[in-house]
Protein 1
Amino acid sequence: MQKANVRFFNWFVIVLMVLFFVSCTSPGASGSALSSAEAPIQLSDLDVTTGQTIYVPAYSEMYIARDRTLDLAVTLTVHNTDFDHPIILTSVRYYDTQGQLLREYLAEPRQLAPLAATDFFVDANEQSGGLGTNFIVEWVAEQPVFEPIVEAIMLNTSNNQGISLTSPGRVINQIAPQDE
């Protein structure tokens, strides 16, 4: 009887060790391919059927008195509202009050999975934009999708006070879905 208990205990320890070592391996070590959200995207490989260019007003500062402004942090957020299909962000650009490009946020297209969201941040200390900054967001999809929600959120919480506002994006160019 005692030999059976020892054998059972040895097997139990071996199973625990195997489970421990298997759980410690990294997800990439299992040999699975990269998820489609992580895979590089080449626009030339896509069969684009729909997309938009969206203008999003943003305010990196605002007047609080005739000659005083308050610096605001700006977060641009893009929400894919489609339940089943990804969208591909092709460009996110930030412009100053004079319309000069300050920053291109994407070095290459980025896929946004169904119901996923992503954001782009401008620190309140980056005051190169002025009062009337804006973003231009371009996206495409390979099939008809629900339009994403794109908005800017501006915020300042200094001196025990808080101010926040949102600014929705507006479509300024549309790639219509192709009729089948």
Note: The helical segments are 2-23.
Protein 2
Amino acid sequence: MPEFQSAPARLPSGRRIYAVGDVHGHDEKLAAIHAQVAADLAARPVTAPLLIHLGDYIDRGPDSCGVIARLAAGDPIAGLPTVNLLGNHERSMIDALAGERAAVTDWRMHGGREALASWDIDPDSDPATWPALIPAAHRRFVEALALMHREGGYLFVHAGIRPGVPLKAQSPDDLIRIRGGFLDSEADLGLVVIHGHTPTQGPVLRRNRIGIDTGAAYGRELTCLVLEANRMAFLQA
């Protein structure tokens, strides 16, 4: 059983959320986290569970293709509904495949070379050839990713939010890329923000946010935050 501690917000009775941080091409770690989630659900059934992936499924790690294939196939854990959010690395992939030259350069520089290789694509080949070499189901999955998800007293988003800006007015670019102005904010954001994007040595717990990108991209752990009622715990692989 996970070791629980007090959480900074609350979920409704019967709701449990498993939120997974930045995967970055580490399909074996994602499979291990999913196995832990499935085991926890089997040991502690709950009325309304939900699995949320916070984005950055691709780049840097060895098997971006495997991660996308796993998630694009549907809910990876039988009987557990899943929400998949957009990360800045998926945004770069979308823009690069659309032919934006700056995005092609950005993607190659920040992990896209490893991702392309996982689809058996030469990273130095003509970018115009890339879309046809990536399965259509994989492209559709990436293009359909959501920007945010709200549950109880929590907001789930890849990078964070701009303090003082209503949720409906948040910039999509901030939601997937923000650091300055958010990470150092002690303001009441209205909701506790669950996010990834900024790698740290372990989960970051603040009264207004919880960061769970624990550096899987760099060989460290992949983290899953477990939320239920007014408590929280962590799973790691």
Note: The domain at 5-236 is CATH 3.60.21.10 (Purple Acid Phosphatase; chain A, domain 2).
Protein 3
Amino acid sequence: MFVLLFSQPSGAALFDLAPRDVPYFASDTAFTGQSGQHLLSEYRGHKVMLWLFSTWCHTCVAGIKVMQDNQVFWKQSGLIILAVRNRNNGGYPGLKMPDFIKKIAPQLLQEPNWVTGEASAEMAQQYNARQFPDIYYLIDEQGQVQTVSTAPTATLQKIKQFAGGISQ
């Protein structure tokens, strides 16, 4: 998060990372998951959290733990969480996504609303061209990006509001 604070342009809010005004239609890019290639369009009709992060990032570890602690809520709300490792792990060594989840929160690999994977070059360009170590997109059932943010530990209520329609 320290890196994000100082990498933002002057006057930009830390948790406002939208490359343009929201809402807008999510680009239908691919990522490699446990069972092969997946397109974002496969999840149309569901609320989706596309979460791109690097496995060397300590705030991402905290984020996984917070998301795990709220798994009952995510499952009940129908939120699908696409936990996708940044392309080439953001340029640093680290575990592949399934190994990372297995180490930090192994039970999430058994949850049907969690999909882990590795970002394609196209996904990296479309969703994380600035190479943030931790960025997520909240995409509604129609495939429109509603929110772009970071650090689920700090923005948990925003995610819950999107997933379940609760007030902040």
Note: Strands lie at 24-25, 30-33, 36-39, 48-53, 80-85, 114-119, 134-139, 144-149.
